[in-house]
Design a protein that fits this description.
- It is a single chain.
- With 333 residues, the protein is an alpha/beta fold.
- It has 2 domains: 127 residues, NAD(P)-binding Rossmann-like Domain (Rossmann fold), CATH 3.40.50; 165 residues, Dihydrodipicolinate Reductase, domain 2.
- The chain is built from 9 helices and 14 strands.
- Strand 2, helix 2 and strand 3 form a beta-alpha-beta unit.
Length: 333
């Protein structure tokens, strides 16, 4: 079976990127985009001028700004990649949007559906593109996976299982409620978004879990119910799990290797016939989402059909309900 692996990121039109916040995930973005696309990273902004300059020097970025305000005001920046902590996504996205910049906001898009609506309403009013940086949605194995399911190779999907577990509870940010810490917003977002990708918005959400003494979620078990399917999702920041996923249908099943949301392979196990595997060769990974932003911006679109605003809002609303059921309350709620 010949499968579509998605458009070549190198063929997307160029875009000039600014990176807001010079943390670890920003380093991957700064490495992948110039290496695999026609786009460039022209500026980085940090609350520390020294840190911005060091990041710029490390990654060959032309300008390092000592404030986020300077970054979004940079006339050479077309789009801003928001890589700050979860608690800051809304305000930093709004800062960039108010400056007329397109935004790619690291997942989770915001801490809540209300915050997400603030950002998307502002993007609509200002006429700029906005998207969550759900990089897995654009990876070649996920493009191929959707095609396989759509072809009917495993029949009608009945169950979906996905888990994301990492031993990162020692990371200070993860333990702090005021920074949007906990397993859900950083880790659980992946299986939640995966279920939305394959099955859509659930009709019911059920969640249980444990909170830390600081009030952030440490471990979660989540069930999404659909008219004819069920998704079982889990996440924890206490231990590392297998981080695989499985989709079972009436004519077969698909297993996605670890780590299911990063560049990887999947195997189709039909009820009749031999298993077969799809294993795209991928270097990097962030370039696929950046290329999608560039294509949409040049087309004049405000959102991507592969991660549309309605789905971003639906995902955030589902996570709001998960937090409500496990008792995780963010500051100001």
């Amino acid at each position: 079976m010949t499968l579509d692996l998605g458009p070549d990121p190198a063929a997307a039109p160029p875009l000039r990127w600014g990176i807001l916040a010079a943390g670890g995930i920003a380093r991957k973005f700064a490495a992948d985009i110039p290496a695999h696309t026609a786009s460039t990273v022209v500026a980085v902004g940090s609350r520390s001028a020294d840190r911005a300059q060091a990041f710029a020097a490390e990654h060959g970025v032309a300008r390092g700004h000592g404030s986020y305000e300077e970054l979004v005001a940079d006339p050479e920046v077309d789009a801003v990649y928001v890589a700050s902590p979860n608690s800051e996504h809304r305000d930093h996205a709004l800062l960039a949007i108010e400056a007329g910049k397109h935004v790619l906001v690291e997942k989770s898009f915001t801490q809540s559906a209300a915050e997400a609506r603030d950002v998307l309403d502002a993007a609509r009013e200002r006429g700029v593109f906005a998207m969550e940086a759900m990089w897995s949605r654009f990876l070649p194995h996920m493009v191929a996976l959707r095609e396989v399911i759509g072809s009917g190779a495993i029949g009608d999907v009945v169950t979906l299982y996905a888990s994301h577990s990492q031993a990162i509870s020692h990371v200070p940010r993860m333990a702090q409620l005021e920074l949007g810490g906990g397993a859900l917003l950083d880790l659980g977002i992946y299986p939640v978004a995966f279920a939305f990708d394959i099955l859509g918005e659930p009709t019911a959400v059920h969640a249980s879990g444990q909170l830390t003494d600081a009030g952030v979620d440490a471990t979660l078990a989540i069930t999404f119910t659909y008219e004819r399917a069920v998704a079982q999702l889990s996440s924890t920041m206490v231990v590392r799990g297998h981080n695989m996923a499985e989709i079972a249908g009436t004519a077969g099943r698909i297993t996605i290797d670890a780590t299911f949301f990063a560049p990887t392979a999947f195997t189709v196990h039909p009820h009749e016939g031999e298993p077969w595997t799809i294993a795209p060769e991928v270097t990097g990974g962030f370039q696929y989402q950046a290329a999608e932003v560039a294509r949409r911006v040049h087309a004049g679109d405000l959102e991507s059909p592969l991660r549309p605003w309605s789905e971003i809002l639906g995902t955030q609303a589902a996570m709001d309900e998960i937090r409500r059921q496990v008792g995780m309350v963010l500051p100001g709620e």
